[in-house]
Design goal:
The chain has 16 helices and 2 strands. The chain has about 450 residues and is mainly alpha-helical.
């Protein structure tokens, strides 16, 4: 029976959502509704009507999300408990972040984000070990580390939100306003998507690919923070002082996370598919060699800066170093445990199915985000669309994945061509997200590196 047929059988025999709910599901719903009402009662004067609507829509969405995906309930409760503990320890004094032990080393936003970074890197190493040894214990530890890193990343964002208001009510804002904050959001959302599919298909070997990308995001995050002091909380520029940011940016990054997941599983698909033939093995090693050479060039090129700011060349150099590290590690794992790696990976059909589901989900959220962005633009700049470079590249990303889905659903494309397309699509998305800010200018120039 194919993966799609199994999914159809599961849907046909699955009880309705309300009939499947237990006591904990209703407790989860009551806690969220109570939290939404509490937030409205205490912070209502700071909200306009749109923000109140966003509050209750988010509450309802989280209730349903927890009902459909049960692990989200424990995740949400852990995030809420640790976030409220951190906020409570701060009280009304930001200075306590330096004097209180738990804030300084665990629960302040910077401490929590540091824990997230360390846990994701450890999880990546654990997944590599799982891939090479097929150890069930290593797989469980790697999953636990990924869950823990995701909790700490969300806690860091929640506490950072409170810290911004402790600086000043004029400074306070939801932490999705700059590259530093959205890279954290990207990491935790991509990890969540991976954890869902890992559980759904009962295969932890995929984590070696997905967590590699997340660790790359963590590396960029740390580099960007040290180079530019990006972790510092700053006031919003006028264009971002809008309730639209609260819904446009998160929707965008669900899309980005899903596209990234699909691309990394596309890499895994090609590795499993190509290495079954002599031609494929040669192509694989040539590809790794190219990655290695590009990385070495990056390492030998040194760091470049222009006018005291980090240049685009500097960013590419840092990317080259990351490629070198990934290429060396991949060669070592392949040389030591090739057969076990291939046996640990799921079937090509499973990879194809997850890529399709991830891109369909990402496309839906990206479409919503694009519509919301157009409505925000109309309010901020007086027009829904202005062919600004960021808008133009957002349209290119949308058309790219629309074509991917069209060819799969209407023309029956499967397998290798779509895996390559998913990988290339990630580079298109990366340029739309970072490249436009590095090389082009426009109405979105406040997001530049």
């Amino acid at each position: 029976m194919s993966v799609i047929e199994e999914d159809m059988q599961e849907l046909l025999h699955k009880p309705s959502l309300l009939k499947s709910l237990g006591a904990f599901d209703w407790i989860w719903a009551l806690l969220l509704v109570a939290g939404g009402i509490y937030a409205h009662m205490n912070f209502g004067p700071l909200m306009d009507g749109y923000e109140v609507g966003i509050l209750y829509a988010t509450t309802a969405s989280l209730v349903v999300f927890g009902w459909y995906w049960k692990p989200a309930r424990a995740l949400g409760l852990a995030i809420a408990a640790l976030s409220l503990a951190g906020i409570g320890l701060y009280g009304d004094e930001l200075a306590r972040g330096e004097s209180n032990f738990f804030l300084k080393f665990i629960l302040s936003s910077q401490s929590a984000i540091s824990w997230m970074s360390a846990l994701y890197v450890l999880a990546t190493l654990g997944y590599y070990l799982t891939l090479a040894t097929r150890s069930e214990f290593a797989g469980r530890v790697s999953s636990a580390l990924t869950w823990s890193g995701t909790v700490m990343g969300f806690v860091g964002l929640m506490v950072r939100w409170r810290e911004s208001y402790l600086i000043s009510h004029d400074v306070g804002h939801i932490p999705v306003s700059n590259l530093y904050e959205v890279f954290i959001l990207f990491a935790v959302l991509t990890a969540l998507l991976h954890l869902h599919y890992e559980k759904r298909y009962d295969n932890r070997a995929m984590g070696a690919f997905v967590l590699t990308l997340i660790s790359g995001a963590v590396a960029f995050l740390l580099w960007y923070s040290f180079e530019r002091g990006a972790h510092e909380i700053r006031p919003l520029v006028p264009a971002l002082q809008s309730y639209w940011m609260k819904i446009h940016v998160p929707a965008n990054f669900v899309g980005y996370g899903a596209f990234a997941l699909a691309a990394m599983l596309g890499v895994a698909y090609l590795i499993k598919d190509y290495t079954g033939t002599a031609e494929g093995r040669r192509a694989f090693f040539i590809s790794l060699g190219i990655v290695f050479v590009v990385g070495i060039i990056g390492v030998l090129s040194g760091e470049y800066r222009m006018s005291g700011a980090v240049s685009a060349t500097g960013v590419l150099v840092a990317l080259g170093k990351s490629l070198a590290a990934v290429g060396i590690w991949a060669l070592l794992i392949w040389a030591v445990a090739r057969e076990r790696v291939l046996a640990a990976l799921p079937s090509l059909e499973v990879f194809d199915d997850i890529m399709y589901k991830a891109i369909a989900l990402g496309f839906a959220f990206f479409t919503v985000a694009t519509v919301l962005g157009a409505m925000w633009a109309a309010e901020a700049w007086g027009g829904y669309w202005s062919w600004d470079p960021k808008e133009t590249w957002a349209l290119i990303v949308w058309l790219n994945y629309a074509a991917w889905l069209h060819l799969r659903m209407s023309k029956g494309w499967r397998g290798k061509p779509l895996a390559w397309w998913a990988i290339i699509g990630l580079f298109v998305t990366l340029f739309a997200f970072l490249g436009v800010n590095m090389f082009l200018s426009g109405l979105h120039s406040y997001g530049e590196l």
